[in-house]
Amino acid sequence: MQYWLYLCKIAKQLVVFALVSLVLSACTTPHQPQAINTLKKATPIVANQGAAASASSSDDERDYYDTTGTVASQEDIDELLGVTDMEAVVLSPEDLAKFGDVWERVRAGFKLNNVDNERIAAQRIWFTKRQDYINRMTARASHYLYHTVTEAEKAGVPTELALLPVIESSYDPFATSPAQAAGMWQFIPGTGKIFGLRQTWWYDGRRDVLESTRAAYKFLTQLYNKFGSWELALAAYNWGPGNVQRAIDKNTAAGLPTDYWSLTMPAETMAYVPRFLAVAQIVKNPAAFNVSLKPIVNQPHFRETYAKNQVDLSAAAKLAGITTKELYQLNPGYMRWATNPDGPHRLLVPINTIETFEEQLASLPPPERYVTVQKRYKVKKGDTLYRIAAKFDTTPAALKRLNGALVGKKGRVPVGKMLVISKVRTLVGGETVDTDQLVNPAAERVAMLEKAEKQEAQKEKENAKDDKKLANKKDKSDDNDSKSFHKVRAGDTLYSIAKKYDVTVKELADWNNLKVKNGLKTGKKLVIFQNDHDDTRVAKAEKKSKKDKDIADDKTSRKEKRLAKEKRSKKEKDSVKRISYEVKRGDTLYSISQRYNVSVSQIKTWNKASKHIKPGQDLVLYLAKG
Does the keyword Signal belong to this entry (predicted)? Predict the structure, then answer.
């Protein structure tokens, strides 16, 4: 009997211990996936059941789902991805009446099971309480939804999948995650390459609206064929097919069901499919959930067009009659200021400007008007090929290819040498422009003019000082010596000038306050004193008169040059426009400078900014008008 009493006592202690452990586990691991698996299975959705859930949204239910990790804030996800707002495509009531609303077309192709459960309801509540968030998302989607729905129909997949970018990126093709997933469909680099999304210094196919959509539907179709369920396919898209398969195998071995709702997965994946289904249910019947979806015309917003050569995106925007920002929104795959030099030179252009754009494109100058432009970098002490590649967001292999024998073994580069960073073929738009001006366009040219003006003012100041010094020198020189001037040209030296005027190098240096060992600046005026014993007074007077005239002419010429330069400067400045750029997640000063073809130092000057910028910050940029 005592033995049995002892066993009962032990059993009681074990039960208490187990209960305490369970409570502690629940308190210390709020995101444990196993806790979520106690929820009921998916059941067919009843009309207005979601509306009732939305209307009641009991605090107990909301708190429960918050603590179990099934409700992750979509706003937090958007902030993590650096999602930015866009203006909605302008809605024409006439077009809407004629072509209809693309949301209706989305609903017509729904194929997924019409189910509901607490996990879906919890996600649905989050969206139904945030009409402003839905409006911002819809504005972004208005640019791309027609295309994603059209491609879903072509691929034969449920049109619900056109809503996947809502939870992946909030329909922002510029979104980038800390895990380096990018684009509307959030492909990581490795998966992107598997599905043919090229990623180079110039271009990232993961952000390309056309290519990433094609790849996403292909990937999802493969996952569906593998798992036989769209819920499992979506889970695999988020978590990885290998992980989902292992979860299925684990349940199979334990004799448990292997549908999505029965598997043990990370909290993120446990919330991912319910969030997607919640969005689909809201889109299917927004009125039932007290949500308003702004209409989007069931017509394409953009069309593809091709150029024969590399195209500067700012120039392309000018040809299309739209802003550079609008062009980038449709062509987010281009990471720089131009299309990839190796092609293809495909551009998406708003459909209402496509004819104008193609006409302008056809009228561009012939190929001989294209010039090769090189961006160069002077190698500094401590530089390596890898550091330089990282600095300019390129690869060591690309630098080796561009610079050939200049790059030594093991990637060594000689200090002081000019390394070619990029080489592109660029259109010169009807005017002769220096290579430097092509690399640094209008804003850079304005900065160069301002610098030239300062240099000219400084030069005039120095000339005034020189005139004063020359007057003093004249007093010290022999009365029988005549003064003349020599303007230093390229290749001149003190020795060659002294020889020309039959004076000594020391005399020439003394007269002009120069050191013999120092070089001469091109354009500098040197005074020369020559013996004049044999000249008559008349000849001397004529020389003096001519000299005075030369000086007067020189002053007049300088004034005319200065005025002409000021006029050119004003004209150049008038051809520049001021734009505002909102910093996105993953942006750096260098990446922004490359996109708009300006320098980092200019961006810093224009914005009085340090090297640190943050998403949402507005930067001022000065670009060519057009």
Answer: yes
